Batch of 4 targets.
Target 1
Amino acid sequence: MKKLFLLAALVLFALSLGGGAIAQDDGYTIAFVPGVNPDPFYITMSTGVNQAAADLGLNVIQQDPERFDVTVSAPIIEALIARGDIDALVTAPNDKEQSIPVLQAAHDAGIVVLTVDTFIGDGNYADGEVTFPISYIGSDNTQGGYIACSALADKLGAGAKIYVTNTRPGISTTDQREEGCLAAAEDTGLVVARVDYNENSADMAQQQTAAVLQANPDIVGMFATNTFGALGAGTAIQNAGLQGAVEVALFDASEENIGFLKDGIVSLVIAQKPADMGYLGVALATAYLDGVGSIPARIGTGYAVINIDNVDDPDVARFIYTSNTSDPAPALDDSYNLAFVPGVNPDPFSITMSRGVYAAAGRLGINVIQQDPERFDVTVSEPIIRALIARGDIASLVTAPNDKEQSIPVLQDAHDAGIPVLTVDTFIGDGNYADGEVTFPMTYIGSDNVQGGYIACSALADVLGAGAKIYVTNTRPGISTTDQREEGCINAADDFGLVVARVDYNENSADIAQAQTAAVLQANPDIVGMFATNLFGAVGAGNAIQNAGLQGAVEVALFDAGEENIQFLRDGVVSLVIAQKPADMGYLGVIAQIANLRGVTSMPARVPTGYAVINIDNVDDPDVARFIYTG
């Protein structure tokens, strides 16, 4: 019965997104083309790729360029395109410009393209030079170069001369690491005596470094931008007997570079997180194929900074790259219990979110324990979560908190009990889980609600003009999302000259919203616009306008694309419906929890899920109608 239920949920989810049913046999075929192999960085990345494939039930075809060279990688990708059975391509492009044509050909052939470690164009896939790849997952390489050369400056002081060994111009990552180092040198007073390019060859890097050190005995610091340059530079310093005389910061935590650190040849190793890149690349490509539209265009994967004091700390040492391939851990099964507690149910928004939860869980083979608060009220949800904690068998929790402050204690207790917490739709604290008021939840996945409120009331301003009076129906203060939607609407009103005549709070009750709206419209016949911040308020407001026969006399923008609200749109009661993407929230919440289980530390602390703006002109467009919530 469990398998039948999961299959039904998967089919319903796929239909709600307008896509075909999710495959339940061998899954998708993902091609993985690293920058070059053998290379400890990309071998480590492949461990992440293969673990994600095992977890998600996918086939991976890995093809390795023998040199970091677009003339080698392009024919490999062309052959993969010609196969005709590749669903997605996860790759590290060898050149930010020259790799564009072959990746464009893959995209044009219907293959989802996602880049890891390196990028094409300017790397801004949201609105930059090149936008067809769905995401770029990799380090902030400018930041990495800055960290490395700032560390050199701390040891050497202003005026010290340093040498930089890089690969070649045109490789996006190493270009940025050089840029970051030069910026740090300028800020701290280091003198960059020379930059050489070693064509990604350890032998060439060794020769260049030896020659430079011999010709420039006043060079006292060095930065190598990647594994091969680091290996060559470290060997040259070792051969010259300059351990300790030249302070060295190396990029990439290969076993050789860690050996140099332990031997005193280098003082700092910057470790990227290639396994994270590989895991997230495969997981997010799969999510996209499954119909999720909220894939972040950029995910920064961060660094571990390794020195002699922390190199043996297990929490740091796990980021050292490996040269050994290994089998992935076995896929999960239904002994893994993920708890899902929506904000309230029954509610078309939460039901649609649950379809995303069950779709991801079905692909992963895990068990979902869903517990539904009957009211959007922390006094109802808190006992539910406490009971889940007390079970002792909950591996992770995905939830929509009912109050940004009052929900903190119970979620803190879940975290303290060893249950990773992730919030969807709503948040706790200020929602900044990176460095805000509350940081223990892994991630907050939901709409940019200030933006959503701004969109809605900007649309009212476009129709009504400056000076028009509008009414806002909200739920209650303290709910993170609806607080922000009200804030966004008021910001738009200030910017465009609307007058907010009144804001009422309906306690998340359609009946209260209907009564309040009817009374306000009767008492204020000069109100010509209205904004409802969520589904229940929208239903109540729509009913009140319909009952008063004010269709067309009051312009209405509603949040949440429930079927009732869409009917109000069709009937001319409202003019605009803001659709969130709850299925995306649910799916990505589950995927993030399993990535965390597998040791991935680079899931963003905030994943915005965007909107579809629905009006009478596009409501029947399948690409828009797929975002309508269903009960």
Note: The longest strand covers residues 191-197.
Target 2
Amino acid sequence: MIEGRPRRPWDRTPPGERDYFELLGEGLLAYVPARPGGSGGGGWSPPLGGAWVHLGPDGRVRAFTGKVEVGQGTLVALSLLVAEELRVPFEQVDLTVGDTDRSPWDMGTFGSRSMPDAAPALRAAAAVAREELLSLAAKSSGRPRESLEGEAGHFRARDGTWSSPYGELVRGLRKLVEASPSTPLTPAASWSLAGHPRVDPTAEEVVTGRRRYTSDLVLPGMLYGAVLHPPRYGAKLRRVEMGALRDLSRVRGVHEGDFVGVVAPTPWEARSALSLIEAEWEESPQPDEAEIEAYLRAHPSKGDDWDTDRTVQGDPETAFQRSSARVEATYRSAYLAHVPLETRAAVGTWDGPRATVWVGTQTPFRARDHVAKALGISPDDVRVIVPYTGSGFGGKHGGDVALAALRLSRAAGRPVMIHYSRPEEFQHGYFRGYTLVDVRAGADPGGTLLSWSFHNVNGGAAGLDPPYRIAHQKVDNELSEAPLPQGAYRAIGATVNNFARETAVDELAVALGSDPVEFRRQNLADERLRTVLDRASEISGWKVRRAGEGCGYGVAVGLEKASRIATVAEVRVDGSWRVKVRRLTCVFEAGAIVRPDNLTSQVEGAAVMALGGALFERVSFSRGVILNRRLSEYRVPRFSDLPELRVELLNRPDLPPAGGGETPMISIAPAIGNAIFDAVQVRLRALPLAPDGRVPVPRRRPAARTPPATR
């Protein structure tokens, strides 16, 4: 039924047995084998499914990766790298992403891992294909390899006496070659395609609305589904009565174990029918929002410690007592929702015993395994395809909506779409966890950090370790049995950990009367981070800043996912304590830059998203029910909130490309919080900083309504 479906998923078939050439046609195919995860280079490395690159007689390059495109620009960036290594025009590369039948296995598109994971594998496959083509060209021309060069999809003799397009060299060929770790890659300093601005050729489709996302798909005979969800977290289905649906000839109800859903010709009919189902639920006690901090501290996780990190060095308590400047405080961050532009959506269909589902997920192979297990079929019989997806931000892991679409499709015998409403997305998704960070830190009179005790509750280990030289430190992380579902979120715990750390560092600088930039420079252990800090200080005018009535400046730095960020914020707090972020200056370094225009957009987007979590975003809940389930109730950044935003990228062609989607998030909140303190001497230690748009005024207000002038 579905064109181009392998007999068996390629990732589950040995390379020599894959039906590459039956589906792609004759030619040359280079592949990078899968690599198990483990310890390498002194640290943990993720498992990798490899990559494959096919070149056919038509001269087109067909490359395959397990990553997906959810708006971050991965498809274009990876295509550029393939074109670079093969010496072909960018327009000749077709990259397949997120198709579990035809793509290499991949653990998921998250953690800024597309550049570190997919790029090296695709480059290696393209490079070994180039070397094999060079051998074919030498044989075809009767010339030595060193006398030939590849350019624009052709091999040419350097003296201009011979030329052949790649396609002619592979005509009639069916050859499979494995990439070697020793295959030479093109140095970033020599890139002619990558590293330069490149407009996404499909960008016009996005701005004109012609791009088709998961929720836009329509298959012949397709029905629409709706799923019965629990009224609150922790509720279990006790009894269901679906008799009222018998009078609806166009509606079919489905009840399989704990799963209850309906299908109908239109979304409205499906949702209306769902409301006629009578269900009884067994509910378990859930904490209220006011009880969340005590609950998290009293309920440490009983599961494994995969997300823990602990460092003990020296004697932090004795060093704390010896410090002349001290900070002892708890920093907090509320639950955050992902708020993707496109809510969860999936279209499922069956072709005999085999299932196919189009779904907006960041983890298609995990979704395949989840669906297969739940349906009691082999993963070989499940194909997950990820179309263009309207963002994820870490919120679209797994395959629950894919499973629901396939359950309903199997019962109805026709394709079925499920598309969550915005309230469903809020209530039945998951969140970035509510986090507490306890900090005890101290410094000596000369501005040297002496003591650092950092205890994270429920935030995760990302970004936990400080980038500063501190002789005496204790850093640990403790997960909790949280009452609301929580999971990945853009930069996840690194944002909260960096907020707590950079706020505490600022407090120490203020206590010592030190310049916040110079205090950081003095203590930073990472030269790359010091470089971005120096540049942010320079272009923001930090040294010549002029604080006026209610105007303040703050700085913060961060290191995460092998990239570095420094942010300087300028804020204004007016006489009614309302906060306006006037300017954000961000300097970002992520190794070699593959696509500078897109990376700039990534940093800008991350800064705007982080602005919401810094100032006003928070999930409100009561006894397992989300109270602000609509965008009219959950405050995200608006155009009127946006500051002047200056982004500068520092290119490091001597380093491998790192991810750019997460790290720019982590310095926004502390920079803004530190700027608010500079403006009005009110230290804010909880995110969001200004939930109603205003600084939470301390109990002892200044006599005048106008905030005090900056010192």
Note: Residues 39-43, 702-711 have pLDDT under 50 and may be disordered.
Target 3
Amino acid sequence: MIHLPRTALMRSMALCLTLAAAAAGAQSLDSLKNDASTPGDVTTYGMGWSQQRYSALKQISTSTVSRLTPVWNLSLDNSANASSQPLIIDGTMYVASHTHTIAIDAVSGKQKWKIPVELPADISAFLCCGTQTRGMAALDGVLYRTTLDAHVVAISMKDGKQVWKVKAADYKQGYSMTHAPLIAGGVLITGISGGEYGARGFLDGWDLKTGEKKWHRWTTAAPGEKGGDTWNPEMYKTGGAPTWLTGTYDPELDLVYWGIGNGSPWNAAQRGGDSLYIGSVLAIRPSSGEIVWHYQFSPGDPYDYDGTNELVLADLPVNGKSTKVLMQANRNGFFYVLDRTSGKLLKADQFARKVNWATGVDMKTGRPVDTPMTTAVKKTETQADFIEVWPSALGGKNWMPMSYDPAHKLAFFNTVNMGMKVKYVRQEKAPAPNWWLGLELGGFVAPEDGMRGALVAWNPATGKKVWEVPTKTPYWSGVLSTAGGLVFTGAQTGEFMAFDAAKGKKLWQFQTGSGITGMPITWEKDGKQYITILSGAATVYAALAGDPELANMPAGGSVWTFALQKP
């Protein structure tokens, strides 16, 4: 075996990247910046750095969607959760599953190459909340993805060959990765999962060409740092704050916005105080990981509300002035609008049907107004009786990303309407794969009317619901909106659906054969508009919520692509 010095090895890796870019058709950072306005390609997770998941394409519209029909379907050859978003680059579709990276001819559906992900045999024992991967990043002929055993991998678009691979963390300590990386400011940024195991959260910045680590940012504040006094002694070391969903990027401000997850354990009194930076958004410099500002949605968070849901960037009228904002429909049941230049709270309105942990958000302090129940929970490590909390740990909205229509300034997202029964107990940390929650979960509670979720149209400027479509089983798919006046999403019962964006009326649906938890995209080729969605559901909700509608729903992942039939 030939051993190269590290500098020589890096030069060799860089050369591989250059050759890969030349072979696959070079991209630039401008192609990522302009992704939302280039309908022929989908080069970023979220269909743009702002993650608006909106397209100006309108060939498929309210008047033509009845002619939408499948043009091809490709099996993913596994039965895991197919919660991924494809990329489209130069006529090739790239799809990530937890076991493979796949290249597909986007028009014909023919598989071009399929490369396996090497995973340890015992990986499933250390995974908290689903076997899946949500997508990839791409630049200059190279794909970037994460793996369940907490590695980051660079792959040639041309043939799927590995360019480099680095280890981000030890999966045997409870760490894993299921998210798409983010390319921002010429740096590859990744987060981590593992909050339920007491793994300490972080973000990493990587060199795109070599995989060398450029910076590392812990997401629990240590003693001597700002916020270090918001933890009980030593608890920050195992405090959770995972970073398991992909952030957004404003290139003009050169700020990355990344959501931070739950504290570990969930037992807030055991952790102590606000436990920064759990349940927050961090605005960071992509070149260094420096925190520019933060806002904490759920200080102390005893209910697993996280803050990781997508952070959508837009311009909204505030006091008669167009303002750069960041929006999030948080799991805690409130829809937040922040000034993304400063982190100042502009609006916080309840969107969840039932919220009993807080009565609202104080606009002067930015803090939620806790109910007596929450106040008691945060002070008491051990409770004698179960309490009923709304929303549940599933949230008023879970991870499935919203869409934002910038023309009509409306957001569209899927909600969850469930409560839970919990009782807090003191629990000492044990090594992974033992969960560290500090409570007993007494089960989930369904609403009296049986409507466990809804598709909602929301006006962020007014904080008001425009319309909603209730459903017995919550939709666990991402949402796509288009200039054709349509909103697309999928059901855990298998239907891929299109709704009228103005009224919420369902206009079209197609049964894909398995539940849908993927993220729809739309794109065009040679003047023809296509819609693509992954089907295949194996969700935590289905496993724990006792939903009778999913009792006979088969698993099995596949990729579906649709276009209009000729009239």
Note: Residues 1-11, 17-25 have pLDDT under 50 and may be disordered.
Target 4
Amino acid sequence: MEDKTPDNERQLGNPVSSDKYEKGNFIDTSQPVWNYSIFYDDDITTFHNGTHYTLYKKFGSKRITVLDKEGYYFSVWAPNATKVAVIGEFNNWDPSLHLLQPRWDNSGIWEGFIPGVQKGSLYKYQIKGYKGLLTEKGDPFGNYWEKRPATSTITWEFDYAWEDESWMKKRKVQNALDAPWSVYEVHLASWMRPEPNEESYNSYKQIAKLLVPYVRKMGFTHVEFMPVMEHPFDGSWGYQCTGFFAPTSRFGTPEDFMYLVDQLHQADIGVILDWVPSHFPYDAHGLFMFDGTHTYEYADMRKGFHPDWNSYIFNYKRGEVKSFLISSARFWFDLFHIDGIRVDAVSSMLKLDYSREEGAWEPNEFGGNGNLEAIAFIKDLNETIYRDFPDVQTIAEEATDWPGITNPTFSGGLGFGMKWMMGWMHDTLDYFKVDPLYRKEHQDKFTFSMVYYNDENFMLPLSHDEVVHGKSPMLYKMPGDEWQKFAGLRTLYAYMWTHPGAKLLFMGNEFGQTTEWNYKTELNWALLQFDLHSQLQLCIQELNRLLKEEKALHESQFSKNGFEWVDLDHRQESVMSFMRKGKKMKDDLLIVLNMTPVIREDWLVSVKGKKFTKEIFNSDDKKFGGTGNVFNSIIRQEVMDKTEKSYRLTLNLPPLAAIIIK
């Protein structure tokens, strides 16, 4: 299906040469467009009101039979158009042959049935809009697009038999907020490739054969895919979407992507998709100036243009746009069985002054900086998703202190299930970058996240953003020689996995990638031939196993009852200890962190509750690449107060390491 014709050859009605499609799906072009509709009055009303959340069942191209004639019904919203034609390979891209009809109700919807059009046919809409401007647009509701750089939509209908019934029945438990969450963030084009060059991709089905057993072996509970929605520019990493209802054709058909999700589910692995309702690019075939006017974006560029990404912001005030976006989110849950969405760039949606200088934005009607329309949209989004799919999660990438991101909407919150804990990420990386000799001076930065850890349902992210643009790979953020770098990274991961909240780790971080992430090449899997890298990978496996098996690490991960500091009084030695607490005292864990490369023998820790008798994790274990010289085969303990159930433990602390005592 790949079309190498540059997009600018299709602008303003210029035909593509007919010999290019001599084997295409041609039809009898003497057949006019039939006046036909699948919209009901209620569809139109709810569409305009912003409450139609299944628009993907109405808009776009739909294969149907009318009066015994098979073909495709087309519909598109272009409220300021004066003429809309369907052009495609089936009519040699001739805009005079198949004109859609505007609905009589002034809804702005153009529609019609073209008999004979087959599945797999390329098409666009030629739209004559404001001041006679001609544009050629892909279908905003298209389910399948040409592989970039070609830009046409493809007529399609889904044909897939799901085999994930077992997962779908039990995912309420595995997606619950008291379940273990260890998320592996993946960029499909660069995780693994058949060849390291830029144009070599594994298909969705090939990725399934490679990724599913790997994620299962590593013990991650979920994968999060960076945007799979169709996008024209590889360098956007998928965050500049043009096809909000289509998985990218770079790796295969929509059914091939369904297969990937299905295989992950059959392996008991949940699937989260990055979803971008915050902005869209200005590519000629996309949503920008769709009918010659600001159809999907705000007309006022103080609200409608995003200066950071040179892109355009959805008009959340417009009911039709709100219906479009919530339908997009619902589409992936409904038809692709996904288990969660991570909503990108929520901060930019909430704040009118986001990345804008004074005078470059206008306050809302109450004089504040909140985008009231975006706030209302987000609340409706979350209410709709949790109403219709109560066993999934929505996750906000939100980097400010906006209150109540994960509070229910009925109590004034935005209604997300989780929020990325960006403050923890920044403070933690800042601390671990410091030479251990000086960490005693930065302990407050390390401990600050515990002041607010239960303000929201937090997910701890070490994402793709932390290993690009000169920030260095995770391994090289650690100070010291090679041993210290690996020891420091193992300690960081142990701290992350024992900190309250869900976990997210970007691909390659699990084995110590030594270069920044590059979307053009695969991860450096050859590093696994070296012991320290394969042993780091084993450390992540063990942490994932503990996360699942130890109830204290997950069942109260969003509750203030799940955490308690034990000792912060040894700043000079940079030793800290805390407890992760289960719903039953017998499940409690003691975590001790030694943040310097100095061995601490006969270290005293006072605890209350149950006796702690077994070391169940030691990041300095030889199997993880540590020295293996300092461990606690026997936990020495002394009863300090029998009535108070207080004990004093005597421990040996390995250098630059974390231990977990049960």
Note: The radius of gyration is 28 Å.
